[in-house]
Design brief:
By secondary structure, the chain is of the alpha+beta class. The chain is built from five helices and four strands, in the order βββαβαααα. The protein is globular, with a radius of gyration of 18 Å. Strands 3-2-1-4 form a four-stranded mixed beta sheet. The termini are far apart.
Length: 134
Amino acid sequence: MEKVLVTISQAPDGSYWCHTESDVYGSGLNGAGASVKEAKADLMECLEEAKADYIENGCDIYEVDFSYQYDLQSFFEYFSFLNVTDIAKRAGINPSLMRQYARGIKNAGEKTYARLSGCIGEIAKELQAASFRV
């Protein structure tokens, strides 16, 4: 199985773009859409087309495992159920400033991304450890 990183970001026109950081089935894959979900779906269509070409050329296919890297705008658009203000508070970031980052009004620096990454990692751990009592 080949692990492939996909970068997702918001374009200046408000659309979302994703692309693979390495070739898959002999080519780089790209997707675009009005939402992150649409961009990912477009990327999957591109994957299927590349796979078909790869098979047509007599090559053996392999499994691909995508991991995703988001900018702040695409992250909060895709995971819209997450509350930007609450995450900002939890990460120790000014909530008003965080909302500006999430809308693309201002750009976050490396330290802010590191704080958010740590915060999201902690949330992921807490969710993995949680279960429902029935």
